[in-house]
Each structure stands twice: as C-alpha cells, then as structure tokens.
Amino acid sequence: MNNAIDSFKHKVNTMKNQHIARTIKIKNNRSGNLANKYNVILISIDTLRADHLSCYGYERNTSPYIDEFSQRCALFTNAFSTSAWTVPAHASLFTGMYASRLGLVQSPRPGILPEEIKTLAEILNQSGYNTAGFHGGGYVSANFGFNRGFSTYRSKGSRFEDNLRDCFGWLERHKKLPFFLFLHGFNCHVPFNPPRKFDIYSKGMRSTYNTNRKSIYAWEPLKNKEDLEFIIAKYDGEIKYTDFLIKKVVQKLEELHLIEKTIIIITSDHGEEFMEHGQLGHIRTLYEELIRIPLLVYIPFINSGKKIDKVVSLVDIPATILEILDAKYKHTSDGRSLLSLIKTSTHNSTSFVISETGKDPNKNIGDLPPRLGYEVPEFIRCVRTNEWKLILDKDNNPIELYCISKDPKERENVCNLELSMRDELYKLSKNLNLKSFREMKTIKESDINIDKIKHQLVALGYM
After folding, report:
1. Phi and psi dihedrals of 392, rounded to 5?
2. What residues have CB less than 8 Å from 346, skipping those under 6 apart?
3. Are the C-beta atoms of 136 and 168 separated by less than 8 Å?
4. Which of 39, 104, 388, 433 could bridge across to 110 with cysteines, CB 3.0–4.6 Å?
5. Which CATH homologous superfamily contains domain 35-350?
6. Cα(347)–Cα(338) distance, integer angstroms
7. How far, in Å, CA of 378 to CA of 242, rounded?
8. How far apart are CA 12 and CA 14, in angstroms?
9. Under 8 Å between Cβ of 42 and 180
10. Long-range contacts made by residues 147-155, C-beta under 8 angstroms, separation at least 24?
11. Which of 236, 201, 207, 242 is nearest to 224 (CA)?
12. Phi, psi of 80 (to 5 degrees)
C-alpha cells in the first residue's frame, strides 16, 4: 500500500497544474463559424446507473441495442456525474463546470444557472447551429435556466416517448443545416412502470410492492428481499424500454441520412440506490451506485469500439464536443476534451473528478412527507481517482476513504488508517478552489417558480 501511495504522490503536483488549466479560458485561433459542420445529439437518460447496462457487465440483457451501438462508440467505463441528482448534474453537463462553482448543489431549490456562465447551447447557437431540446420537464425545465441557448426547448411529458414525435418532426425540418439536439427522459426515474412488453424481469415475482407510488419521499418499508428484487426488476424493465427508444432515435438518423454527419453522446445525470448502503432513491450519498454513469461517444469519422478506463466526468463533455467541432470559442471550464483519449488512448488526464450533493433544510417544494429513514446531508463532496475515493463533509473535513480497486462496494472506510492517501486526495480537492458549503450563495424562494412545474414534479414523485 505504501508503494501505491508514494506513486500517487508523484502525480499530485501534475494533477494540480492540470486542474488549474481546466479553469482558464480557452480560445481557438480559427476565425468564422464552426468549421466542421457535424450535427450533435446529446442524450441524457435520467437516473441510469452504469452497472445496470449489459455493455457495462450487467447480468441481465437490459440494453441490447446500446450494446450493439457501443461497438461504434468510445465507451468510458469510469465516467462520473458531478452530483447525485438532476439539477447540478445537468448544470455541469451544459457548462463544463462543477456544481458548487455554479452555486447549484442543494436540493430541492438549487437556484438558477448563472447568466454570466455561457452554456454549450449558447456557444453553438451563436456559431450558427440550430439548437433544440426535448426533455422530461421537472428539474430539467427552463425554470432553472436550462433553456438558455436553445431556439426550441419543449416538454410534452416526462418520458422519452412523450417527446419523440416532436423531436423527429424537428429533425425532419432541420436536417439540412447543422444542429445541436438535447434529448432527455425520466424513464428510469421513479415511478418504475415499464410497458408490459418490456416488463419481463418482474414476471412471476410474488412481491406486491408498489413501484408506481405517488411519492418517492414516502417509500413503504421493504418487507423482504423479494420486494427489493421486484423494484430492481421494474427498474431494469424501464432500462430495456429506454434502450428500444434509443434504437428508434438512431434509426431515424439513418432514415434521414444523418448518421454519418452526427456526433452522438449517450450519458446520464446520476444513478439510483437499491439498498447498497441502506437506502432507496438518490440525492443523499456519493457512493458508486449514484455517481458512476454510462458515457458513450459516437464520432462518425473515428472508428472506435474501444473501452476507456480513465476517470472522466460530465464536465468533460462540452469541451469534447467543441474540440470535435473545431469550434471558435472562449469558455471557462473545469473539464478537458476527451478527443485525444478517444483517438489514441493517450490523454493529458487529470486523473480525478469531483462530485457533490446536499439539501437545504430551509427550503422545500411543497408539503413533502418525510421519507422513511431518509436523511440528506446539507452538503458533501467526493474526490474520485481510478483507485480511491475520499468523501468530505460540509466543513471540508475528510469523513470516508475507500480503496475502490480493492473495495469496489465501498464497505471498508479506511479514512483513519490510510492517512497519507487521505491527505493527498484532500489537497487535490482544496486546490480546485471550489466554493465551500458556506460560500455558496443562497437563493430567494421567489427566484424559483415551482408552481410552473408542480404537475411535473408530482408525476416524478417529488410532491
């Protein structure tokens, strides 16, 4: 273990410098609009944990089409969200910045995306791209500033199938000009109620647990192991249906002869807990089941089909897209482009990523009943490398340390045993100069009009 720590120490100074470079402004010298007129489709499958896809080693065949499509993609085996819930994760996905730097971490009213921060959609829109988002509403709605830069930003329901007809119509009308399309759905989010054709894993199970309940904040207690297996079976059925819908999207691109002109990125904002650490749902922790997410990148002019094991983050996606497009832009970002890693397997990697979550106890979104045994910390942050994870509390004190390479299920907290490794990881977090819990600005209740999206939050079980 000491050799591993000594080796890691040698990397720390390099990692510090690389992360400082992440936050400087980058400008391409090319003049004019985007040179390579490739289209971009960014697909966010809400609440999809990586280890429930068969292409990530899951025992059930939940994702036959994504598995097939992955042979044409770069598949990142260690991709991580910046948070354990929707708003901060999508804020990072759209800006390339960590959520605390944006002041958007704590649920349930995190605030609005700061106007001074330019989004990927704004950059592409200003560069001549048609921009559209078809999304599941709720915590991805315009209420939180996610519509900025999109000429069209629309939701007719929380699930992918609710918006595909409008999405396909838009594609048909805009296929001749370069476009940026954001597609999002809550299919894998509670309530878990897959169509009968795809609800194949729960057949024959005796559990009467209600996975179609009204509120995720009122989980009924699990009576036995069969209840948990039933919930997971329903979740996996939703994944299988979502896989079918992703296939329809790619088939539409092929029908419109756009597949060789379009970059496609498939990812998620966070995962879901199934009692691995004593809870169901998300938001409350930063364990692997919540922050390890799928990431597949399809680039028409690169023959890929490779798996990449380096740790990467949602904050890397905007920089990756902009470099693929050879864009002229000036953009502050915590992320780095993954293009060189996709092309050659070499990368000036920063070797660690950050994730954050929390709840403001002074704000609410309605008369929420207390979730059974559910406690959300005010704020926690983690530093994740390929081998280690350090979790810090709201006062930036190290509280949990796991050697992921030896303890992938995070059962043995060695925070008080591996002091040298704990201290090195702590330095990495500190040197990012992210906002502390106390520095993050508070948001007035009037800044967020929950009434506009109340019916969507009800449908997702938040109220």
Report:
1. -115, 145
2. 340
3. no
4. 104
5. Alkaline Phosphatase, subunit A (3.40.720.10)
6. 7
7. 33
8. 5
9. yes
10. 148/113, 148/115, 148/119, 148/121, 148/122, 149/119, 149/120, 149/121, 149/122, 149/123, 149/124, 149/125, 150/121, 150/125, 150/182, 151/125, 155/456
11. 207
12. -130, 145
Residue type, 343: K
Q: What is the pLDDT of residues 419-453, one digit of tens each?
A: 999 999 999 988 888 877 767 654 444 456 666 66
Token reading at 149 = 């830069």
Structure letter (DSSP) for residue 371: P
- Three-state helix/strand/coil letters over 159-217: CHHHHHHHHHHHHHHHCCCCEEEEEEECCCCCCCCCCCCCCCCCCCCCCCCCCCCCCHH
Q: What is the pLDDT of residue 347?
A: 61
Q: Which amino acid type is present at position 404?
A: I
Break the chain into its structural domains and give their ranges: 35-350
Length of the chain: 463
| Chain centre distance of CA 426 | 23
Task: Give dist(CA 356, CA 335) in Å, integer.
Answer: 16
Q: What is the pLDDT of residues 17-44, one digit of tens each?
A: 545 434 434 344 333 445 458 999 999 9
**Mean model confidence pLDDT for the chain:** 85
Highest mean pLDDT among 68-82, 318-332, 419-433: 68-82
pTM of model > 0.85 = yes
Going 371 to 377 to 379 to 383, the CA torsion angle's sign is negative
Pairing of strands 353-359, 106-107: parallel
Residues 348-384 pLDDT 10s: 555 899 999 988 666 554 444 444 445 678 889 999 9
Distances (CA, A) of 86 to 100, 182, 202, 349, 364: 14, 15, 27, 26, 16
Amino acid of residue 33:
N
Q: What is the DSSP letter of 83?
A: B
**Are residues 460 and 217 in contact, defined by beta-carbon separation less than 8 angstroms?**
no
SS3 at position 11: helix
- Encoded tokens for 251: 């088939």
Burial 402-431 (b: 16+ CB within 10 A, else e): bbbeeeeebeeebbeebeebbebbbebbee
Cα–Cα distances (Å) from 74 to 15, 80, 241, 419, in that order, read 24, 15, 23, 36
**Interatomic CA distance for residues 265 and 303, integer angstroms:** 15
